[in-house]
Amino acid sequence: MTSSDKPEPEPFTPPSPAALDARLDSITRQPFRARFHLRGRDRVTAELKGPATIRWHAYDLIAGRLAPARPYKDGKQTPYRGHPVFVAQHATGTCCRTCLLRCHGIPKGRDLTRAEHMYVVEVICRWIEREMTGGAR
Questions:
Q1: Furthest-apart CA atoms within the chain: distance in Å
Q2: Amino acid 137: pLDDT
Q3: C-alpha closest to that of 46 among 78, 81, 19, 20
Q4: Closest by alpha carbon to 36, among 78, 98, 97, 5?
Q5: Tens digits of per-residue pLDDT, 22-80?
Q6: In whole angstroms, what is the distance from residue 40 CA to residue 25 CA?
Q7: Which pLDDT value is given to residue 1?
Q8: How far apart are CA 29 and CA 120, in angstroms?
């Protein structure tokens, strides 16, 4: 089987907003993930930049650090602080390809599809929105 004969990945269907909130509730109850909250400079950055800019930053950061099939330094590529997106990645299990597989069922070893990329950005932005409004359950 040549590289051109590889089967296409299953089409990714993003969950509904209610299902996304339920998944975030489940993930953020995990002891490691429950420790993460927006505080200090990361919270101020989210307030000052606003949701649209943070969404763009998330899209860009995911494109470079998570979307490739084999990200550089996978498992160690996401800092714990320094940007609200980094904190959100750890809180939501979107920090590396192993966590993405474990928490969201998105397989390793291939580039993220556009739908998966947008889903990861949506997960991150939804978590940040919940942190900023106190809407996390």
A1: 52
A2: 45
A3: 81
A4: 78
A5: 999 999 999 999 999 999 999 999 999 999 999 999 999 999 999 999 999 888 889 99
A6: 23
A7: 46
A8: 19
Question: What is the rounded (10 degree) CA torsion for 54, 84, 96, 127?
Answer: -80
**pLDDT tens, residue by residue, 66-101:** 999 999 988 888 999 999 999 999 999 999 999 999
Q: Which residues contact 131 (CB under 8 A, 6 or more apart)?
A: 37, 38, 43, 46, 88
State how far the Cα of 89 lies from the Cα of 98, in Å rounded to an integer.
12
Residues contacting residue 85 through CB under 8 Å, at least 6 positions apart: 54, 57, 58, 61, 124, 128
Around 59, how many Cα atoms within 13 Å sit in the side-chain half-sphere?
Answer: 9
- How far apart, in whole angstroms, are the C-alpha atoms of residue 38 and residue 72? 26
Q: Which amino acid is at 15?
A: P
